[in-house]
Amino acid sequence: MGIDPGLTRCGIGLVEGELGRPLRLLDVNVVRTSAQVPVPERLVTIERGIEAWIEEYQPDTVAIERIFARSDVSTIMGTAQASGLAMVCAARRGLPVALHTPSEVKAAVSGNGRAAKAQVGAMVARILRLTSPPKPADAADALALAITHIWRGGAQARVEAALARSRTTGKVAR
């Protein structure tokens, strides 16, 4: 499950597959909240939306966009709050959480860490064999996070497991 956190639009996408095999879109959506509603109520809406998706789909991992500094502090705060909710929802169920930077996600799906949102959306559509990019961009970004984690996170987990085995057995993993 990929989550593109945001206070106004929180993208959630589910992708099934494994490294080296075609990936398949399971579902994608955006939890929306109104800027006219108090922030605590907006956070409840986001938390309920994430919880419902985790309950329905029971993912094995949750990949969330790592928060990075932007010039607009209010945007960072809302994004960080939504990100924290996503982590809590996953942790509550004992799910592993992976954080991926925007440039890591862009590089994974497009080959360019500075790719524009439109290019990321187009590549998500191509990777998942969709007729058009998911809309809005938050939906495409959530799917890009899920794709990135399958491609990079899964490989990283296997490397870490092999290194852990080599430390306990004294044999070098190859």
Structure description:
By secondary structure, the chain is α/β, with parallel strands linked by helices. It has a single domain, classed as Nucleotidyltransferase, domain 5. It contains five helices and five strands. It has helices spanning 39-57, 73-92, 102-110, 117-127, 137-169; strands at residues 2-4, 9-16, 24-32, 62-65, 97-100. Strands 3-2-1-4-5 form a five-stranded mixed sheet, sandwiched between helices. Helix 3 crosses helix 5 (137-169). The protein is globular, with a radius of gyration of 17 Å. The mean pLDDT is 91.
CATH homologous superfamily? Ribonuclease H-like superfamily/Ribonuclease H
Largest sheet: 5 strands, mixed
Portion of residues within helices? 40-55%
Q: How far is the first residue's CA from the last residue's CA?
A: 30 Å
Across the major sheet, the strand order is 3-2-1-4-5
Summed up, the helix count is 5
What percentage of amino acids are in beta strands?
15-25%
Uncertain runs: none
Shape: globular
Write the layout of secondary structure elements.
Blueprint: E1 2-4, E2 9-16, E3 24-32, H1 39-57, E4 62-65, H2 73-92, E5 97-100, H3 102-110, H4 117-127, H5 137-169
Parallel strand pairs: 1-4, 4-5
Antiparallel strand pairs: 1-2, 2-3
Helix pairs in contact: 1-2, 3-5, 4-5
